[in-house]
Each structure stands twice: as C-alpha cells, then as structure tokens.
Amino acid sequence: MVGEFYATAVAALVEELFGDWKNPAPYARIPARYFERPPLEREVRTPDKANAVLRAGHNLKMRDDHADFPALVLANHLLGGTSSARLPDRIREKEGLSYSTYSWFSADQLDEAASFNLSAIFAPQNKARVELALREELARALQDGFTPAEVEAGKKGLLEARRLARTQDGALAGRLSSYLYLGRTFAWDETFEQRIAALTPQQVHDALRRHLEPSRLAVSKAGDFR
Fold first, then answer.
1. In this structure, are residues 116 and 60 in contact, taking their beta carbons and an 8 Å threshold?
2. For residue 160, which of 3, 15, 74, 153 sits 20 to 30 Å off, Cα-Cα?
3. How do 52-60 and 114-122 pair as beta strands?
4. How far is it, in rounded angstroms, from Cα 61 to Cα 177?
5. Cβ(176)–Cβ(1) under 8 Å?
6. SS (H, E, C) 27-75
C-alpha cells in the first residue's frame, strides 16, 4: 500500500479480512513462452468502420536482465515511444496519415520472452502509405541509427518519465508488489537507469541491428478496405 493512511489500522483490517484465507488451489506460475513464427500478413475486413487499425510485431528471446535490454528500451522510445518520436513525427505530424502511431517493447523478468510491436490508426484509404512509412522508418533506423542529439534528448525524456511514474501512488504500489514477488528492490531501477544514462548512439544502433528484424514482422490490418 502507498499513500496517507494509518498503517496499524490497515494491517489489522487486512488480518481480519484475509488472515485465515486459504488458497483452494496450489499456486503454480505459468511461464511466458518464446516462440518463432514465419512472417504473417493478415487483413480483416470491417465494413462501414470509419477508421482502420494496423498492429505488427515480432518476438525476441530475451529477459529484462539481457545486456541489450536498456539499449532496446531507449531505441523503442526514440522510434515510437512518445508523440515526438520518429514514427509518429513522420506518419502523423509530417504526412498526416494517422491519428495515432506508436511502438512498444517489453521483456519478461523471469522468462526469455520479449516482443517489439507497432500500432497505427488511420483512414482506410491510407493503408499502403502508412505501412510503407512504418517500414521505411524502421529501415532508416537500422541503417543509420540515431543522432547524438536524438539519443541525449531521448535519455533525458525516458529517465524523467520513469522518475515521474514513481511519484504516482498507484504505479508505485504496483511496482512494489511486483518486486516483492520478484525479489527485487528499487536498486534494480537505479542500476537500470544508470545503464540508460551511459548509452552511446553506437550502442543503441548496434543493439537495434542485433534484435530488430522487420522481415519477421507479423502484420495485421483491420478496416473497410473497399
């Protein structure tokens, strides 16, 4: 629990409500599973819908203690983690093709199961241009990497966002609960953020080239593509 409360009273209430509770079934953790699959192109027709949606991604065999994890977190932040990142800047701001474009990257704490993902919402007639722009921006990042100015600004923004998240009671309570289960403390965050702060543009570029493979993307589109 995080917030302003009387700890003694809360502890007594927790004991009253849950003290003699027994789990009717033994606990067993369900492992996350990495699996490979061939590239996929799928289209679903949704007649009379005003907007279309694209989702794309591919799996990676990685936990969040992998040496490249901090660099990939930063690379995703620069590609599509904020409204000013490369993908939304081109597709939404410059070309006006999408109402919402972003990417996300996640890796499990206990199992080697990670994924890189893309999302875009757009008018159905813009489908081909949106997908082309997504692939071109991924190719540009893999070919040229990110500029020193991009990386420095990205590190500053990412670290500030993490610090801000720790000021939110709900997010903090969730993190504390997760860390009790994982056996972690906020020393893990401190070390992780030090690794983010120390990254160079070359390290970010090298990690992206090692793990991001646009040719493996599974791409699904749904819309009224008449």
1. yes
2. 3
3. antiparallel
4. 26
5. no
6. CCCCCCCCCCCCCEEEEEECCCCCCEEEEEEEEECCECCCCCHHHHHHH
